[in-house]
Design brief:
single chain, mainly alpha, 287 residues
Length: 287
């Protein structure tokens, strides 16, 4: 069945209208504050200025928060990809019954909010947490050590949050790979690892691009996990934006940081997608 153009527009219109009214309009309204001055009596003083962006780049604290946010997001995305790929491949190759169980186990963490999962990390790695208690009891530590409030711990915690989404995205992409191509390569004597690297992996490049882009955007905008696991010792941009608006009541400066975060996210995702697409096209030509 083929839909005419008018019917297609009518079907798309409700979703587009909701997106414009409840996402685009509030976002544009908020970001306009980034070009205005702070005010003690209102959200902002309606005067066009770039002072907020100049102040941001003049502050080592805020530039450091942006750099740290990018590095943590990149590390968490790479770690999630490495961990999710074998799991997704295992799910794809499992029988129907086992596959259903594995998918339910993968989706289950998504039923728990980020705050609850972050508190779980605090209970596990806190100064009086399970890990310190066990290591001290068995004599591996003389006294509890600080395992939280580090960039590494925040990276691992954020990875655990986004890992199910990466697994599901890669699993959907792996399901589209024709199994006959793998069987043909194996019948010709190729080792399984080589089959995966040269036959399967190139075919799921679009899925990898989609999964890593989605996860990276979620990581760079993470709030609850950096707040609860990293605290003030590991400042990342989303908590800093919230503190600037809620505690300092400085909407223009907070909006300028949000605008920078949006621009950086889009730039990284677009550049990454372009590089990956070029790699994919090169593989298709080589085939």
């Amino acid at each position: 069945m083929t839909l005419d153009r008018r019917t297609g527009w009518l079907l798309v219109m409700p979703a587009a209208l909701v997106t414009v009214v409840f996402f685009v309009a509030p976002l544009v309204y908020f970001l306009r504050f980034s070009f205005e001055r702070p005010s003690r009596t209102a959200f902002s003083e309606p005067v066009f200025t770039l002072e907020n962006f100049a102040r941001f780049f003049a502050s080592p604290y805020h530039v450091g928060a942006l750099t740290r946010t990018l590095l943590v997001a990149l590390a968490a995305t790479a770690l999630a990809l490495l961990l999710a790929l074998p799991v997704a491949y295992l799910i794809t190759k499992a029988s129907a019954r086992v596959k259903a169980v594995l998918i339910i186990l993968t989706v289950f963490p998504l039923l728990v909010g980020n705050v609850v999962r972050s508190i779980g990390w605090v209970a596990l790695l806190g100064y009086s947490g399970v890990v310190n208690t066990v290591l001290t009891a068995v004599g591996l530590l003389d006294a509890p050590v600080e395992l939280l409030r580090t960039a590494t711990t925040v990276t691992v915690a954020i990875t655990s949050v986004v890992l199910p989404l990466m697994v599901l995205t890669l699993q959907a992409s792996l399901e589209s790979v024709d199994p006959n191509t793998e069987r043909a390569a194996l019948d010709l004597g190729a080792r399984p690892l080589r089959v995966f690297r040269q036959i399967v992996l190139p075919q799921i490049v679009p899925g990898i691009a989609a999964g890593t882009s989605l996860v990276f955007v979620l990581c760079i905008n993470a709030y609850a996990t950096p707040r609860l696991v990293g605290g003030t010792q590991v400042p990342m941009l989303a908590p800093v934006v919230y503190d600037t608006i809620s505690s300092d009541n400085n909407w223009p400066f907070g909006a300028s940081m949000a605008a920078l975060m949006l621009v950086v996210s889009l730039a990284v995702v677009l550049l990454y997608g372009r590089l990956l697409r070029r790699q994919f096209e090169g593989w298709r030509v080589a085939r």
